Structures are given as C-alpha cells and as structure tokens.
Amino acid sequence: MKSSGFSRIFAGVACLAVALLGATFTATVPNAEGDAGSVPSFQEFERSSYVDVDGAYVVNGDEVESTKAGLKKFYERMVGPKHADEEGLIVNTVSGRDDKWSASQALNLTYCVSTRFGTRHADVVSAMAGGAGLWESASTQVDFVHVPAQDGSCNTRNNNVLFSVEPVSTTQYIARAFFPSTAKRSRNVLIDDSIWSSGSWEPVDILAHELGHALGFRHEHTRPESGTCFEDNNWRALTPYDAASIMHYPQCNGSSADLEFQASDAAGVRALYGS
Ligand SMILES: [Zn+2]
C-alpha cells in the first residue's frame, strides 16, 4: 500500500466484496459459527447487490451476473451446503465443467476498445495489449485480438467482436470483467477512470487480472489457504495455491501488494489451454 490512492482504490475494490459477501460469510466459511439466522434472504441479498450500468449484477467484487436468475443461482451457491474441495490458478466451473473457451476460440479472442474513452483511448488500447500479452506470452494457445475497426461501435451488441472494452463511472470497482460462460449481453470489460491512479497496481496488471477472468480464472483468494475472502467452491485447481497470483486480491491475505503476473499464473493458463 504505497500511496493513499492505492488505499482508496483498495478500499473500493474490497468494499463491494465485503458488502456482498459479508452477510453470507458466517454461513459459508468453513468452521465459522454461522447460524441460519445470519443468512440474508434472496430479496435482501438482491437489494444489497450492486447493479451495473447495463443492468447486470456485480458479484465477487469485479465479476458479473447478467440476470436476476443468474444472481439467484449465485446466491443459492453461496448459501448452499459446502462441498469438499482440495486445492496459483483455479478455473471457474459451471455445473462441474470447466468454464473455458474452445481451443479455436481461445486463439481468436476478439475485442474492441470504445472510442468513448476519448483522450484515454490510446492508453486503454496499450494497457489492454500489455495485459493480454502477459497471458499470451505464457501460452501460444491464447490470443487476444484487438479489432480497431469496431472501436467506434464498441458495446455488447456488436457481434463482430467477442467482447467489448468500455468506460464506466463508478466507485464500486476499478474494472470488472466476465467469464467465458457469460452471456454476450454482459460480455464486456468495464473500466473506471481510477485505473490511472491506482497506486502500485499498474493498469496493465489490473487489465491482466480482468482478462484472467475472461479466460475463466477465478479469484485465487477463494481457495481455503487464503483464510479469508471466500467466494464459493465452483472451481477446479490448476496449480498449487499462490498468494501472489495476479488473480489474488492483495487485501485478501495476499503476499504481494502490486498485482504482478506470476509464474504460477503462467503455469495455470498452460494447464487450462496448453502451452
Ligand atoms: Zn477479479
């Protein structure tokens, strides 16, 4: 936590997760003395959920559920019985299956960068390329492809790209992303202006974290080894736990404050998509 800017952002990122998860924490963390009375109803949970610009619900700090039905499923997983889990990188699972792109799609992950970023457009293009490059240099089976021709109509309705990168104005997060299983209408990376003043978290690394979600990776800190910030058990371990993973929030007992890409992250993307 080098700067006050970092602390502010840090609080901003953390607060949503705390607001969303705090109420269910006692019911879902292993060995916690939770009781049924501490579990909010779905209605209470929904009211406490942050709704994004396009009507999607933001969960786990910077991930998205497109619909109320999706939020309900998320809620049910949160409050449901905990199932056993064993084990830096973990992949999201949906109904027990890895949430990942097909081999051919992974080699053509097209995106646009909205011209609505204005004077920051070139900076976003550059930071996206840098963030994507960290994953791409770890695996030849993953390729993010910027399609500049679509930048002028860059939104979730543009079917010429797999996803869009768009500006947002919010105090809820710096940036947020989606998973491969996310419906096209919510398949965007939203970036708040605070990305340019996030202290020791560089824009390239923040976007690499978001693109990690876009590849299917979950927050490393949901693993039991972190001892905090539990989300749910719908994931599969790809590598041993790494408290310094780029997918691990530093404020969740992370061992690194600067959100840098780690060897474990490289190993994880190779484990899921190939080298
Ligand atoms: Zn995240």
From TrEMBL:
Q: Does the keyword Protein transport apply?
A: no
Signal peptide range: 1-32
Q: Where is the Peptidase metallopeptidase domain?
A: 97-275
A molecular function GO annotation: metallopeptidase activity
The entry's keywords: Hydrolase, Metal-binding, Metalloprotease, Protease, Signal, Zinc
List the InterPro entries hit by this protein, alphabetically. Answer: MetalloPept_cat_dom_sf, Pept_M10_metallopeptidase, Peptidase_Metallo
Q: Does the keyword Secreted apply?
A: no
SUPFAM superfamilies given in the database record: Metalloproteases ('zincins'), catalytic domain
Q: What is this protein called?
A: M57 family metalloprotease
